[in-house]
Design a protein that fits this description.
heterodimer, A: about 190 residues, alpha+beta, elongated, B: about 210 residues, 4-stranded mixed sheet
């Protein structure tokens, strides 16, 4: 049985931060400005007093703006406008990925936090290597899972066993994006077996 | 909130952002370069005079205003309506019921429609998830977007619990719900850790 349609989309959506708040706020601001402009136009054409400024006053103000304002004021205002615009552009083009990933499932859209994965990896490494919690530290980023092991002085670490256990956790989760695994035994890189 | 809408959301932000950047650059240039400021005023004055001449040349009957003004107002109204429609399409709604099942009807029973209260569906899912190994707590909510109802199951995992086991447990609960409803609704399962991991980019355990 395959998952109902839209499920893939649901999962993808959950791994990215939404632009809804930003775009709705932008739309509201645009609506207010457009409604104000429209009202002023109607008031001016029916010969009534403007709310703030009639369209012709606005146009004259805009035309005379460079002459009527101090240069540094113009520069500051321009920079502020451009910064705001840049913020919107960044929001528009940045991928906005969250520290989560999609797990394979044939019924539902399953999304798992990277924190949950890191904790599971940490625990699997500890159990497979018979290690103390202080000896293992696991971190997960977009593309990598890094398990760092500190052997106790004089002791040894069964690195292949740890690697296999962690790989089992990752393979079972069937993640997307799939991270690469690094197992690092500090002190002596490479094989740490007896 | 489908794919194209998400893209549209970004396009709206991007276009507006570029316009603002262009306007900001023009204003800053006017402050930095006297020649640019002079050109601004000169061109602006000419353009405004041109617009006024055009407005005076196209009176709309005896109203005393121009066709151009009317057209601009109509355009404004259309833009506002579009933006409002856009906003309302972006706001997801909470579903009260879920999984409607149509029955064609026969000699004994008239055609009808069966829906299940969202609270009941949520309760059923929670009941089959709470207390299971690896699961610390569960929250279930129902949503509706574009006429489709679905469930969102948020599971807080115990520290170190295997994600596959939790996902399998959740899937089992969802299949139970499928049987209860008689149909498959879209389900999103989110397996999350504690509160702290919400903002951190790189997850780290001890």
């Amino acid at each position: 049985m395959s998952a109902p349609p839209r499920t893939r989309q649901l999962a993808r959506r959950e791994t990215r931060s939404s632009r809804t708040v930003a775009s709705v706020a932008t739309a509201v601001a645009l609506i207010l400005i457009l409604a104000w402009l429209g009202t002023e136009a109607v008031l001016a054409s029916t010969g009534q007093r403007p709310l703030l400024a009639s369209p012709s006053r606005m146009a004259e103000w805009l035309v005379r703006l460079p002459a009527a304002t101090l240069p540094w004021g113009l520069v500051a205002a321009g920079a502020a406008l451009a910064l705001l615009g840049l913020l919107l552009v960044v929001l528009a083009v940045s991928p906005g990925t969250r520290p989560r990933r999609i797990m394979a499932s044939d019924r539902a859209a399953v999304v798992v936090d990277d924190g949950v994965l890191a904790a599971a990896v940490d625990r699997a490494a500890r159990q497979a290597g018979a290690l103390l919690p202080e000896q293992v530290s696991s971190r997960i980023s977009r593309r990598r899972v890094q398990v760092r092991i500190r052997p106790i002085p004089g002791g040894s670490v069964d690195e292949p066993a740890v690697r296999a256990a962690v790989e089992r956790v990752l393979a079972a989760s069937a993640l997307q994006p799939e991270p690469k695994l690094d197992v690092i035994v500090s002190g002596h890189h490479g094989k740490g077996g007896p | 909130m489908t794919g194209p809408r998400r893209v549209l959301s970004r396009i709206l932000l991007g276009v507006l952002g570029l316009l603002l950047v262009a306007a900001g650059a023009a204003v800053a240039a006017a402050g930095l370069s006297p020649a640019f400021a002079a050109a601004w005023t000169g061109r602006g004055t000419a353009a405004w005079a041109g617009i006024q001449a055009r407005l005076a040349a196209t009176p709309a009957g005896t109203l005393g205003i121009s066709w151009w003004t009317l057209a601009a107002l109509a355009l404004l109204a259309v833009a506002i309506v579009l933006l409002l429609a856009w906003i309302f399409s972006r706001i997801g709604r909470r579903a009260k019921s879920i999984g409607s099942l149509e029955s064609a009807g026969n000699a004994d029973a008239p055609a009808g429609r069966t829906t299940v209260d969202a609270g009941l569906a949520a309760q059923a899912v929670r009941a089959s998830l709470d207390g299971r190994p690896g699961i610390f707590s569960t929250a279930v909510s129902a949503w509706k977007s574009h006429g489709v109802e679905g469930l969102r199951i948020t599971i807080q995992a115990r520290k170190g619990a295997g994600p596959r086991a939790i996902a399998d447990t959740a899937e089992e609960a969802v299949r139970g719900l499928d049987e209860l409803l008689g149909s498959q609704v879209p389900v999103l399962v989110r397996i999350r850790s504690g509160v702290r991991s919400a903002s951190a980019r790189t997850e780290r355990v001890r």
